[in-house]
Write a structure and sequence with these properties.
Layout: H1 8-15, E1 23-24, H2 41-45, H3 54-62, E2 67-70, H4 73-79, E3 88-92, H5 99-105, E4 109-113, H6 115-119, E5 128-132, H7 144-155, E6 160-164, E7 188-193, E8 206-209, H8 212-222, H9 229-239, H10 242-265, E9 272-274, E10 277-281, H11 285-294, E11 297-298, E12 300-302, E13 307-311, H12 316-332
Parallel strand pairs: 1-11, 3-4, 3-5, 5-6, 6-7
Antiparallel strand pairs: 2-8, 7-8, 9-10, 10-13, 12-13
Length: 341
């Protein structure tokens, strides 16, 4: 099992700080979740039904015609590699750590590529390209034009382009959700999730958007009832709440800009990011991670390249603690300015 953000209990044990005293900035999940309404008891009593209206609401939200609801996008990440014969898969790196292992476990050869290398990859030798857009953890974005060009080149050899758009809800101008599986993009597969933007990671709600024939194969691979009925209920309400979505986008963009300014003011200018997190590549990421953790602030550390990813503080108390911790750590331990590190 790969390590992911959000493991507060482990951090609490390691650093001897009670759970209630932590500020968790390690996940990139919106700190203001969708206000889930009361779930009727009848929802808990019935098995999930495909004709409950969820797909209609999701179709309107994503602008997509063909969708399959899944148990978080992770379910599709694990299942899709088993729908193809073993081949060569080019995966964006650094990126979400589950992509490459999922393809390798299904017998595929995986080539990990930087963004520019992926754009220039010789698709004659590639069966599948998989990337996140925006990318996690560095926020790198591919334009719709660039993605469609990749898809067109791959289609000539029956290849797939798989794009995980987990962080696209707040910045969706480059999304291919409204084109995946349609004419001219039949080989495009899009993954979406309610975990980040809606702040509902615990509900484990995701969608795969693709051509109908592929979705049918994926549905058969996942088996019946891949998404629990209460999760379907919550997703239907949240995806249809356009007023809340507009307010959430505004709030996330404002908080992300504030975080970028705070980091820059402490000699830690962002080297990438999205509306949900900021990414700082620096040589002293490991000790900085430790110093913040010792103060009850959990961020995400990456070893290669050496970097930190910081999510958004939830409230003014959290902002003040982060500001004080950064000022104390950067001043006390004499880390060099990131601009010259």
């Amino acid at each position: 099992m790969l390590e992911h953000g959000g493991r507060l209990r482990l951090a609490s044990q390691r650093y001897g700080i009670e759970l209630a005293h932590w500020i968790d900035l390690s996940t990139g999940i919106a700190p203001w979740p969708y206000p889930v309404p009361e779930i009727p008891l009848s929802v808990w009593q019935r098995l999930p039904e495909d004709d409950d209206g969820l797909l209609d609401v999701a179709s309107a939200y994503y602008g997509a015609k063909n969708l399959l609801a899944v148990n978080g996008s992770q379910a599709a990440i694990m299942a899709l590699p088993r729908l193809r014969a073993p081949g060569v898969v080019a995966v964006l790196a650094p990126s979400y750590g589950e992509y490459a292992p999922a393809w390798r476990a299904a017998g595929h050869q995986v080539i990990e590529c930087a963004a520019e290398d992926l754009r220039q990859q010789d698709v004659d030798a590639i069966d599948v390209m998989m990337l996140a857009n925006p990318n996690n953890p560095d926020g790198c974005c591919f334009s719709r034009v660039a993605l469609l060009a990749m898809a067109q080149r791959l289609s000539e050899s029956n290849g797939w382009l798989v794009v995980d758009e987990a962080f696209a809800d707040a910045d969706g101008e480059n999304s291919l959700a409204n084109m995946a599986g349609m004419a001219g993009a039949e080989n495009v597969i899009i993954l979406r999730s309610l975990g980040k933007f809606f702040g509902l990671a615990g509900a484990r709600v995701g969608f795969c958007i693709a051509a109908p024939a592929l979705l049918l194969r994926l549905q058969e691979a996942l088996g019946p009832w891949p998404l629990a009925n209460p999760a379907r209920f919550i997703a239907k309400v949240g995806l249809g709440d356009t007023a809340w979505q507009a307010a959430q986008r505004q709030r996330l963009h404002a908080a992300s800009a504030r975080l970028a300014t705070l980091l820059a003011n402490n000699d830690l200018p962002s080297t990438g990011g999205t509306a949900l997190f900021q990414y700082v590549q620096c040589a002293f990421a490991a000790p900085l991670y430790e110093r913040l953790a010792q103060r009850g602030i959990l961020v995400r550390y990456f070893a290669e390249p050496s970097a930190l990813r910081l999510g958004l503080p939830e409230n003014e108390m959290a902002w003040a603690r982060l500001e004080n911790a950064l000022g104390d750590v950067m001043g006390k331990y004499g880390y060099p300015s990131n601009s010259s590190a």
